[in-house]
Specification:
single chain, 276 residues, alpha/beta, nine-stranded parallel sheet, 9 strands, 31% helix, globular
Length: 276
């Protein structure tokens, strides 16, 4: 992986961009520490940089560490501007959060480049609140903001297991396709997207047994293998995405950091094999 100097912007590359923001977390802070910890897991000597499909990520000169956005001050404006800058130079981006609120400004930038954007959102929570604790930019609200501004033509959510009445009404209002975990994983066999797909992975889509390092433990989630299968086999043109809501303060023996790093590696492989 090539480290991009702070005063330069790469082009025609796969970029990893850190978004160390957790000011919109509702229960616990800590996700702002995640980008650095995921990078540590990525390079940890206990594993290697080969993907399951046989790609040596360590040999790619198109893989770039684009650094972290300085999230002090107007964080959303800075995030949107940096993502737009990278997209304008024909890069594909995987953002490392941070809490899930960062997806809103990231999608704002992607929607400018991809007017027919689809989103697949993996999460225990729908994140469709109109506001939480008086905050319309809470990590529980990004997809309400995205859909009310018509930044995506289609939103599909999977792994959901905390849907309350308000969020059910929100999902109906915005035409969200929701696959609750209680109904199983058969949806993956038939789900197909036309047009560009942004994949947003909240680490608590996984069962806490596989990812204890999250702020909101919600039993009954996906296995690591199921999420990897989604990344590897989803029918659609994935053009970027994010991995969010890892909280190192809640992790056990860096277990969740390594899981997030594994997802990142396979996500990069998917983007690399479908790049254009």
């Amino acid at each position: 992986m090539i480290l991009c100097p702070s005063n330069q912007t790469p082009s025609d590359s796969l970029c990893i961009l850190g978004l160390p923001l957790d000011e919109n977390s509702s229960f616990r802070k800590g996700p702002s520490l995640a980008p650095a910890k995921i990078q540590q897991g990525y390079f940890c000597d206990s594993a290697n940089l080969w993907t399951e499909s046989g790609i040596d990520l360590g040999s790619l000169d198109t893989l770039v560490d684009a650094g972290d956005v300085d999230c002090a001050g107007p964080a959303f404006e800075k995030i949107q501007a940096r993502v737009r800058e990278l997209l304008e130079k024909n890069n594909k981006i995987i953002c490392l959060g941070g809490d899930h609120s960062v997806t809103y400004p990231v999608i704002q930038a992607h929607a400018d480049r991809y007017p027919d954007l689809n989103i697949l959102h993996l999460d225990a929570h729908p994140d469709l609140y109109d506001r939480l604790d008086g905050n319309r930019l809470s990590h529980a609200c990004p997809f309400a903001r995205i859909m009310e501004k018509k930044l995506a033509k289609r939103l599909v959510q999977a792994g959901i297991r905390t849907m309350n009445g308000h969020q059910r009404r929100q999902a109906e209002k915005f035409g969200v396709q929701v696959h609750e975990m209680r109904h199983g994983m058969d949806w993956l066999e038939t789900l197909e997207f036309n047009g560009p797909v942004y994949l947003s992975i909240d680490m608590d889509c996984l069962d806490p047994a596989f990812a204890p390092g999250v702020s909101h433990h919600e039993p009954g989630g996906m296995t690591t293998r199921q999420v990897l299968d989604i990344i590897q086999t989803l029918k659609g043109n994935i053009i970027g995405g994010d991995i969010v809501e890892y909280n190192p303060d809640r992790d056990i023996m860096s277990m969740t950091a390594m899981t997030a790093a594994k997802l990142l590696k396979e996500f990069l492989a998917r983007l690399y094999t479908t790049r254009s």
